[in-house]
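ugh ok so i messed up the first submission bc i forgot one of the chains. this is the corrected input, ALL of the components this time, i swear. 592 residues overall. if the numbers dont match what u have on ur side tell me asap before i send this to the collaborators (the ones from the other lab, u know who)
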Amino acid sequence: MSTDAVLPQLLEEWEPVIGLEIHVQLGSVSKAFSSSATTFGEPPNSLTDPLVLGMPGTLPVYNQRAAELAVALGVATSSKIRARSRFARKHYFYPDLPKGYQITQSDEPLCEEGTLDVLMGTQRMAIRLQRIHLEEDAGKSSHHGTVSHVDLNRAGVPLVEVVTAPELHSAEEAAEFMRSLHRLVRWLGISDGDMEKGQMRCDANVSVRRRGEDRLGTRTELKNINSFRFVQNAIDNEIVRQIRLLETGERVLRETRLWDATANASFPMRSKEEANDYRYFPDPDLPPLLIDGPMMARVMQTLPTLPGPRFERYREWGITGDDARTLIGERALSDYFEAAIAALPSVGCNAVAHAKAVGNWLLTTLLGALNRDGKSIAESPFPATALAAIVGLIEGGTISGKIAKDVFDEAYQTGAEPAAIVAAKGLVQISNPAELLPIISRLLVENPKQIEAYRNGNEKMLGYFVGKVMKATDGKANPQVLNDLLRKALVPA
Amino acid sequence: MAEIGLQEVTELAMLARLRLSTDETETMRRELQQILTAMDALAAVPTEGVAAMTHAVPMDLRLRPDAVMPSLTPAEALAAAPATAGDHFVVPAAIGPHE
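and heres the new structure output, hopefully the right one now
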């Protein structure tokens, strides 16, 4: 039986406890401790220098931009930022780590006790972070039978590791945490978070316990879960594996397991017990990292409004949870929306009252057109002020919603101002009864059978007359005014 | 006083990927013991109320502007490698990714 089928039943009795360790590459152009570029996809071993290669006599000098990006993430997660944090050496031997140790932070990390604002579906939830610390990435090895090939381009790329408290309770929550962190790092411009390029990578600590039990069960560490879908599959799979072991009286071994997406299963990593002794100690090459007032000020100055508060505000404006979630999915989209809302007063609209209309036009009509043309919101030929103008024209009664679509199409194609299109093409809606009544009177004379049908209770005939008037006015009749006039006119004299 | 035994020396040698003969293990144990004894002497210094430090003189980390400088060419990077394939270093098979 598949995991999906058995899991809900097992979860009635068992509670999963999940903590995540997520590595995010910081988007600096040069490496953490030396000046080689961090570009992805360059020829193998073309981005190295004596420090990256672990040559004797080299000294690391940390990247100011990387420090600032990490502090920005700390501030955005309400973490305590340590004014003096320390780099440590973590020792292990692996061919993608030429120095024989990784520079990381151990007992004095940059950030502690933060929270990440996670959108679980359309509910906000604060997930506690134990720490965010600085470290450097390792190179990449690929395995070919009896040998491995090593490319050190990635070695030394600056990373932060984000460690959550063990308080996620399902694979869905873990995946939502990943999505929220992904959204945030992109929002802050800290990282592109492209998982296919390894810019964001996730390890999960998973254990299960019987519901009501306080003590945590033995945990396993799942490695190599590098897409949102893998996170969910790998964790669900591990939860079921552990529960089955415990239900048959076996033990969960504390071990590291490697997720194999092709096999849809995890396998224990071959490891020697002793290999877990990393012998951390403060790196003598690197004095404490000081985060001073000027650096904090620089970071605060560039910090944008965060997605969580914007989501909340959009909900208050009457936007549905799903639409609000979509709007904050990307900062460029949310910024576009904010700009359109800000332009509403200039077209005579109340920002709050018409936010929902702007949201609908943005998500349906504009995104529809952009998707059709393979363009991103940043490449939109239709500016936010034009979107506000269209909504203003509709809400002010100048044009009907139907005409507005035509105006949009033309403005999108030509870049002309919506109001100018309306004026040039004479699209202004006809709301004056004095203009509509003569047309209605003529139609009544021409269509006696349809009047008869309406008067005999065939309501649909109203639509017939609406259509006729619209045709006669090139669609410019104000639908609401027209409906009222027609209803009155069709009543037997 | 902190004591170090032959078993611990063997473990440390394994972690450091050093192959030590029995004689070398004993020599190493003796030298490490001397270092530990010296540490014990340091531990006798009263340090209550003194913040831990990694350097004898106060030093702050200097930061570097985020600027790219030329890298080594692949040929230069690989110049001292015992084995290569194309522009890669070649090493005995290592199983599974580490951190």
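quick check: Chain A touches chain B through 60 residues (CB under 8 Å). that seems consistent at least. Residues 59 and 285 of chain A are 7 Å apart (CA to CA).
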